[in-house]
Amino acid sequence: MTKTKVSPASSARPDLATVFGLLIALACIGGGLLLEGGKMADIRQGTAAIIVLGGTFGAVLVTSPLPVFLRAMKRGASAFLVPPDHFGATMDRMAALAERARRLGLASLEVEAVHVQDRFLQKALGLAADGVDLRVLREMMNFDADVEIDRAEEEVRVWESAGGYAPTVGIIGAVLGLIQVMKHLENLDEVGRGIAVAFVATVYGVFSANVIFLPIAGKLKSYSRDRGRLREMMVEGVVSIAEGMNPKLLRMKFEALLPSQKTLRAKAPAAVPTISSVRSSTPAPAEGS
């Protein structure tokens, strides 16, 4: 059997869509202000930022359990990174495992499971090697996948909650500013200036919700769907290996699960890689990525 070298999954890199999207939004909004004759100093107000950000995250903390909130804050940074491509590497690993199982039997999967870094796939291979009924195996692994996806969705909901609260908290900030303005109606020259400053909090609330919080939630939700497809690929792969499916047919089966831009590359003819080459070149997906 020809040994083929499997290219490792690329490491996480900056998500240019997120970075450029934020820069474009900032440039267009700031540019519009300047074109209307305003100044950037008009919307620089520390008090408004404290009210909006503090009030928003305080409300989110009331809504979400602390562990979920902390996980969501940590996961928010991943919206600025493109996760490594594990689809092609996982397909190569499944094909190599299928070839080995056809030659040496399912019991050989137990040896290979030791070298698998991804705990989800390791568990699935161990169950298959132990001869667990395939229906039971599928139910157990689908349950594990559902739990993992539910946790990711909890983190997404934290950012969605922030996007829902921020505009309302911004209105609260504007009302507080107007209250202070109303106390000094005798000085009419300052009333207009005070009203303008009061509405900065509304700008902060709407901006943070629609340019930061909700877009981050959408990006994390997209990554969560990809993670779910990867778990589905692993479950179906192990079940197919246990059923004795041909490695080439296994690759064809997985093409439907590959993201569209990766499908064309997957259709290129390739020999089935060996276990050793896949093991040395396939990194495990980061937990919760």
**Rg from alpha-carbon coordinates:** 26 Å
Sheet with the most strands, sense and barrel status: 2 strands, antiparallel
Write the element-wise H/E pattern from the N-terminal end onward: EHHHEHHHHHHHHH
The computed structural class is mainly alpha
Tell me roughly what share of residues is in helical segments. over 70%
- Report how far the terminal alpha carbons are from each other: 34 Å
The amount of beta strand, in percent, is under 5%
Low-confidence sequence ranges: 1-10, 261-278
Number of strands: 2
Overall mean confidence score, pLDDT: 82
Strand order across the largest sheet = 1-2
Q: So what's the overall shape?
A: elongated
Count of runs of 4 or more consecutive helical residues: 12
Number of domains: 2
What is this structure, in a nutshell?
With 289 residues, the chain is mainly alpha-helical. It contains 12 helices and 2 strands.
Characterization of the model:
It is a single chain. The chain has 289 residues and is mainly alpha-helical. It has 2 domains: 14-44; 45-281, no CATH class. It contains 12 helices and 2 strands, in the order βαααβααααααααα. It has helices at 16-35, 46-63, 66-76, 87-104, 108-113, 119-129, 134-182, 188-198, 200-242, 247-254, 260-266, 275-281, and strands at residues 13-14, 81-82. It has a two-stranded antiparallel sheet. The longest helix is centred in the middle third of the chain and has 49 residues, at 134-182. Residues 1-10 and 261-278 have low confidence and may be disordered.
